[in-house]
Predict the structure.
Amino acid sequence: MPRKAMVILTESMFYVLMALQCGEMCGIDIAEFIDRHTNGRVQIGPATLYTILGKFEKEKYIKEINVEGRKRTYVITEKGRDAYNAELLRLRQCIVDSDKVQSELERKV
Amino acid sequence: MKKQYKIGQHIYRIPPCPAYDISGMENWLSDLAEEGLLLMQDGFFAGVATFEYSEPRQVKYRLEAAQKETGMWSDDCGEPDPEQVELGKKYSWEYVAKRKDFYIYRSFDPSARELNTDPEVQALALNAVKKRQGTALFSSVFFLLIYPILLTRGCLLLTTISMGTWWMILVLLLAALMIVDNVRAFIYLKRIQKSLTHNGYYDPGSDWRKDAAPYFIRKIIKTALTVLLAFAFLQNLGMSITNEKKIPLEEYNGTVPFATIQDFAGKGSSEYTMTMMGLNMGFNTIEDKSDWIAPRFIEYNEHATVKNIDGKLIAGGLYIDYCELLNPNLAKVLAQEFYRLDKVKGVELADTPELQADYVIAYFNHLHFPTVVIKKDNIVVRAYFFQTSANYTMPVEEWAEIICDSLGNNKS
């Protein structure tokens, strides 16, 4: 069964929220943040980034706080922070589960 | 032989696939770039793409689903977010043009980061296009089917006869084509979304050449029908304003197949005179039409005075809609439609005269004129006769009977 976007965040969505956890940013700042913090492993395309920003704004995960010329600055909301934390928890649980299985495998060997 | 162009020359092309065929559009534009045809900035107008001839080269084109209305009257003229365009530039993507619900970007760098890097987000982006497509489908169904039915008060047969059966068929064909196109677009977008979500791609290798011929045929038919119908509509509108199709009764050389005011006076009538003449308001005119399902359809109005053999003066205006249909079943439907149309405007039922007919109904119409609808075999007549004589008013039963008896007798 495929994942349903916005119920479970995709990797790009997760990183966008992660970037905004660190403070207010515009789209270009977010793209740079993701490049920098993933050493280029996660590359977010412009169409993907702006679709996510649009959807997040609609879902009230983020809100636009400033428009300066072409630059729009966003900030994460409480709802967005909750979504980010829920996804973080889910991912951590994945790691815990994976570690558990790995230890069992190692014990067997 | 391949056509030769000069560098910088402008070349016009009609896209061989609809805007929502993302991979078709991307491949078509890339293929043309390999032939040296580069899409110009804002190079889409009225369904035609403008290219500039330059050195043939490899160009990557990508379509992005617009998240807002892209029409000329929408916010920012429907152009993409300037910050997004700037970020695109940073990653070697240049915004070129928009076509319907999609923004077109291109990159000359084969290693440029993809515009869409998350298939699930791309699928999500298509929701906006799908929603607009759904609205377009609803509008098409409403304005092409439901609204005309409401507008004509459900009198489809009467409308068909008035318009002409072939015109009605063409209108329905155009409506069907438009609705089918909207449904196809909706289904296609749903399929792309499914493919993006399940497989992570949207069939980027699809061949636009394969579907080009059916697409062009559909487009040509639709354009031809639209032009034809627009022309016919304007011509009809002009004729209805100028009453061009109506012939003055004195100039009419044909025979009317029903009784008229002179017949109401019977044998030995005298002093027949047409009244309301020279007012240029369409009085005393006849429109004699022929159509596929109604071989004869006459709209007749006569204002006259005449004395019968007893010296009684019959005077007034007689309005008749006479229709011969292909079969009695259609005639029955039309008779009911005539009544329904008047009923909407407001009628008061009257005693139904006993006539030798299959169906008769009598009422006072919204102008309070006595009206009868008679159906006899495949003939339908709606007639109202208002009388202005000071000394005599002919009863409805009498004039309705004279009309009824005249039907099917080919009175001259």
